[in-house]
Amino acid sequence: MTGTRLASADTQDLPAPSAPSREAIATAYQIALQAQTPVPVAAQPAPPQPAKTLDADTLAGLMTRAKSLIGVGDIAAARLLLERAANARDAAAALLLAQTYDPAVLGTRDTRSVNADAAAARDWYQQAVSLGSTEARQRLAQFQN
Q: Rounded CA gap, 59 and 53, in Å?
């Protein structure tokens, strides 16, 4: 059995395999892309955004913490909490958030460089009105005068 060789072990004069050129790879890639058939996507309407709801305890906690932050002058942090509560359709949070932007409520004395934003105040007052806040309706009427 010493004289038996595997066919793959036969030494033949085969040219060494050459690496494909960059152009050949790019051409093959383009051909492969063109050969792909697009998968049709059925036109489906976007699912409606679920209303963000928070339980009463969470809302109460957010409001308590936001009021505490306002009390110590951290308006920016309070706004984050109030926005979360207002987006959960809480009228009181939307009203308080509007007041943090209202130039008449915020005042001119500001130690933390929090700026009043009349447009944001108006938007949040309108949101609070849409959620049923009568105080926001009164504030909005005063705000527009």
A: 9
Q: How many CB atoms lie within 10 A of CB 71?
A: 9
Banded pLDDT at 40 (limits 50, 70, 90): low
Those residues with Cβ within 8 angstroms of residue 142's Cβ, 6 or more apart along the chain or in another chain:
104
Q: Model-level pTM?
A: 0.61
Q: Which residues contact 62 (CB under 8 A, 6 or more apart)?
A: 54, 81, 82, 84, 85, 93
pLDDT per residue as tens digits for the range 71-92: 998 999 999 999 999 999 999 9
**Contact criterion met (CB below 8 Å) for 102 and 62:** no
Q: What is the token pair recorded at 21?
A: 């050129």
- Single-letter amino acid code for the residue at 108: T
